[in-house]
Amino acid sequence: MTSSPGLPSTLVGTGDLFQLMRDGTPRTRGELAALSSLARSTITARVDAMLSSGLLEPVGEAASTGGRPPTRFALNRRDRVVLAIDLGASHASVAVSDLSGQVLAETTVESDIADGPVIVLDRVSALAVDLLASLDRGPADVAGVGIGVPGPVEHATGRPANPPIMPGWHDFDVPAHLARQFDGPVLVDNDVNLMALGEYVTSWQSAPHLLLVKVATGIGAGIVTDGRLLRGALGSAGDLGHVQVAGAAADVVCRCGNTGCLEAVAAGPAIAAKLRAGGLTVESSQDIVDAVTSGDIAALQAVREAGRDLGSVLATCVNLLNPSVIVIGGKLSEAGEYLLAGVREVVYQRSLPLATHDLRIVGTAVGSQGGILGASAMVIDAVLAPGAVDEYVARRIA
Predict the structure, then answer these.
(1) Domain extent for 143
(2) Which of 115, 273, 335, 394 is the most buried (most CB within 10 A)?
């Protein structure tokens, strides 16, 4: 535990005590003393500091055991708001959430990532300002900004790293650009990582080892291990789309320059190309989903085969990572059980029995909101961490 500049010594550790309140459960000073083993005087000083700084709010009284009923306190989730941004190849979603991660307002617009960082970031900044105004909030109310981009990111700096579909974005200082307009830290990550985090925090906290696979124009994975994102040394962990598929046609060239990559045989464009060769008019991933929904036999077979190709790569991942759940997301996941059936067929056949004993392979629970929810959760974790809370209290009571 380290001291925060400007924080009295009696209040050092306020952020550690605050962690007991992050689950949203109302508690009294006495209950906090029992959970923390701190002296009542210390609890009183730190709770008072969190009340005066806006982090906690009174929410009623507990049952009296004699004398005046004690007051319960809970996280003041309305104290500040979080901006969450999800950028795709052709869309931008912007949302405002409270400190519990609940989305208060959201909008999605068409936006070409190839327009470049300045145009795209200024576009989402304007959308964010409008959303804040609709909630009677302003940039000064922002605790932090989380943004997901469709390419590799050096998470420590927030700079995209040679993203293949993002011309002009390499090494661009995304945090500095957004920090000109909004308060709080600006955190940037790969969009699939944030989808994985969004699925985990909303639906799978009982399964702390999760693998999220996005199947759309490209294929990528986000890995949650012990409840934390696994990014790898340079942020490229989970680049599943460029693993070679066993038995795939050696002459199928991927946009990365290699041949036989999973993305080149099982992503949306690859499936659409196969169906067009068979005489079906499809262009996009949505067209494929529509064809499956309408019962087109060729589309059903192509999606099932794509699931098998995906399963052949995921079988290795299962043996290596031993996840407790695999979540299939992205536009093609809307094909439902046809894609999932192909994945399950191969994974359960080729993975070790111990690794698949309790493994669940399911569709996304949060759909297209996963990136937004993950971006919000990433920021909340940062701004409500013990050290960040100590610094916030120090500023507010100064």
Answers:
(1) 81-191+372-383
(2) 335
